[in-house]
Amino acid sequence: MEQQPNTLKYKHLGIYTQNENVVYMHEDCHVCISEGFEALTRIRISKASQTIVASLNIINSDMLLPNEIGLSDAAAQKLNITENDNLYVSHLEPIESLSHVRAKIYNQKLDYNAYHEIITDIVQGDYSNIHLSAFITACAGDRMDINEISFLTKAMIASGEQLNWDKNIVVDKHCIGGLPGNRTTPLVVAIMAAYGLTMPKTSSRAITSPAGTADTMEVLTNVTLSPEEIKAVVKKEGGCIVWGGTAQLSPADDVLIKIEKALDIDSEGQLIASVLSKKAAAGSTHVVIDIPVGETAKIRSMEMARKLKSHMETVGNAVGLNIKVVITDGTQPVGRGIGPALEAIDVLKVLKNEADAPIDLKERALLLAGELLELSGKVESGTGDQIAKQVLESGQALEKFIAICKAQGRFTLPVLSPFKIEIKAQKSGTLKRINNRKIAKLAKLSGAPQSKSAGVLLNVHLGEAIEENQLLYTLYAESKGELNYAMDYKNNHNDILTII
Amino acid sequence: MEQQPNTLKYKHLGIYTQNENVVYMHEDCHVCISEGFEALTRIRISKASQTIVASLNIINSDMLLPNEIGLSDAAAQKLNITENDNLYVSHLEPIESLSHVRAKIYNQKLDYNAYHEIITDIVQGDYSNIHLSAFITACAGDRMDINEISFLTKAMIASGEQLNWDKNIVVDKHCIGGLPGNRTTPLVVAIMAAYGLTMPKTSSRAITSPAGTADTMEVLTNVTLSPEEIKAVVKKEGGCIVWGGTAQLSPADDVLIKIEKALDIDSEGQLIASVLSKKAAAGSTHVVIDIPVGETAKIRSMEMARKLKSHMETVGNAVGLNIKVVITDGTQPVGRGIGPALEAIDVLKVLKNEADAPIDLKERALLLAGELLELSGKVESGTGDQIAKQVLESGQALEKFIAICKAQGRFTLPVLSPFKIEIKAQKSGTLKRINNRKIAKLAKLSGAPQSKSAGVLLNVHLGEAIEENQLLYTLYAESKGELNYAMDYKNNHNDILTII
């Protein structure tokens, strides 16, 4: 078939760039020359009715012929490409919604339509990392008022699939991160589903922490399920614990979270919109939000926590959710493990009522499950905690948890990594402080969450009397390089644990 | 020679990505696996004592062997690479100055040290586009106070070379952009140098406009000179008109300007720091700043202009410059040409005192040259304008201009492109309004400034009586595609010129 103008023949190059769309064209390519394309120009590439936007890299070797075009793996996948496909390339029409981003940079208030246009273009993949980072930054630091946060949340809900469970009550919970090891979600889902409530839980992967619930659950079962598969699991077992990304719920959130991760920020407006848009899109009706407060937690003061609680409740109501926000202790990690596999071990110990199960993780899960039972109206006020405890200690929750995992495709026991170093106390005293951020950083440097079995296994709690040479924690990694890298950090920071 | 751990053999791939550093490694590469590198991880790459930071792309084809490493052309050039060099790769240590960027995102004031650390890391190339965009955005929209703008300016001066001319008086001028065709700089330099003053002018390329002074001058002479070459030109002729980028003056500015261009913003703080850091680093002592004001100029109101004037003067004094800020008419383009070659033609016509030289461009250049003569103290107050006029009309300025161009390496006459379309009036009336932004956009879509001879040649001025079918302007492009693209825009915007 003869090539049309602006049409090039696809050649597979095998370049993996995560989610970033890159297009490769030869410097002598007639389209580049006639259209005036330069390296890093963002251009539109179409195959039949499918279209993506990609950044141009120019090839000046024999890797491509002048009439050929290459794509990064992610871009090729989005266009469903096969070798020798003809691709049509064209100028990217101006992205109109960037004028709203500029208005936001200049401190103007945006209305619903503006947020809707921005989020629609982001989901289409039209924004570069530069545009995304500017949008995130312009919305951070209290620059969105409460109405704008509601607009953003609604726009994010509208940007993806919305699930409908045909139930009057669909419960959910969320913890505003920052507390290493705080893996209550699998426990709460198991208790609620065992009690007969519907809890289709979609979780994120880690944003800036060593593990998100989805990362931890992936050790035990499959978390990447299609919306149809999720429906089947929930129909069968009343609950699920899956990654929210592939479910196409609030897809803008997944794009924005990557940028927030690169910046290592998590601003209030984006945080509220991220959490509540996922909940509403997942079809939840009754939601408990846990805000841990502590000097080194994400939320550092009661004042910030109360403000966030109030904003969460206002935006939650604006998007039609019944919300209860609980402020909890965030002064130290919860459970013993920090990192996907290590946290999965803690969860199983609590479910199995083992003697050495972390009591703090158990109590926190019961508190949240109790609040959720009460918010749902299914149990009397003041009885939630006790009912949750009974469901857990009777073994019903464990049974339900294993059933959910199996319905999601497998139930696998966690395995620890052979590369480990034990860190012991250099003096005796009392453990006065645990720096949540630094202990999380240590777990991240050791490879978590990408390396599932990497992380930190804590052996001590705040207020404990410590003997010299007592084991404080064990560092796990999947490679020697990562273990050394974490040790470098540990050796340069003597305030990860403070013993006085 | 045996390879050390973390050492890989360089292979040339021929991938051009402008200034972006990309590193390519095979998915089976032992370093990727042992270090836990993933696609888009930012890693450090060293050859002997030279080091850069690059984003990783993972190759899963036979383009590279597992023990080989590829680099984008820009990255290879920065490391001075030859085939088969051994390169050492390592984790990127945490970028400490990003904590200041986060503080700025959260609306905190930064001190000099914070700006200095940020700018140092930016010049080293440690920031990704995401980090750069967040820094730009966090500093935009009045988020820097006047002290912070001074700190940023000083940090930018300190980040690069600083020239010293061994003269008590070194003059300079700058126009706060936004006015298409306003190419007074070459005229002012020619007049000042002809009068015996020292004016070593370094200019930017276009940020968001169809041509910067450096783009226009590049049509007539070389503008990419080393600091040594610049010194030689100025010693010989008293003046130069070169691009500031390669001179390594305020190199952070060149990095930040690319991000501002992608965002299509130009915030007050960055603008002041950009302009004044270049002036101070270039060794200037007396500087005239021109701020054109108009509805569709960069500065839209007298109020904004007066605020900018006051901030410019404060920061200028803080960094040791004698400054005069002049507010001028910005309601329409200056001269006839918009685009590098078209503007170069206007400049030459004025210098040659040709009958059809654009009178508005000439008058504006004389105003600025007059102010600068007076600011320098070399002429009496009130006489600058007349003295400048005499230097220009006597032909001394032309002679000096040609001498400067030749000292910079060549004097080439501009050539126009064969691809052009004449735009005629569809009705008669009076030309009431010229939209500077839209006419600039038209010139950009036609290919300016990358295509030197592309742009718009205006045939009319504000207030002129227009006959039906009279020629309004001519569009020039270097390719048919670009001409069509500009025409599409023209056909969709009927308010580029308003005739009533």
UniProtKB/TrEMBL annotation, chains A, B:
Q: Has keyword DNA-binding?
A: no
Q: Name one GO cellular component term.
A: cytosol
- GO process annotations (BP): pyrimidine nucleobase metabolic process; pyrimidine nucleoside metabolic process
Keyword Chloroplast attached? no
Question: What PROSITE patterns does the database record attribute to this sequence?
Answer: THYMID_PHOSPHORYLASE (PS00647)
- Sample GO molecular function, one term: 1,4-alpha-oligoglucan phosphorylase activity
The similarity annotation says:
Belongs to the thymidine/pyrimidine-nucleoside phosphorylase family. Type 2 subfamily.
- HAMAP family, alphabetized: Thymid_phosp_2
For this entry, the protein name equals Putative thymidine phosphorylase
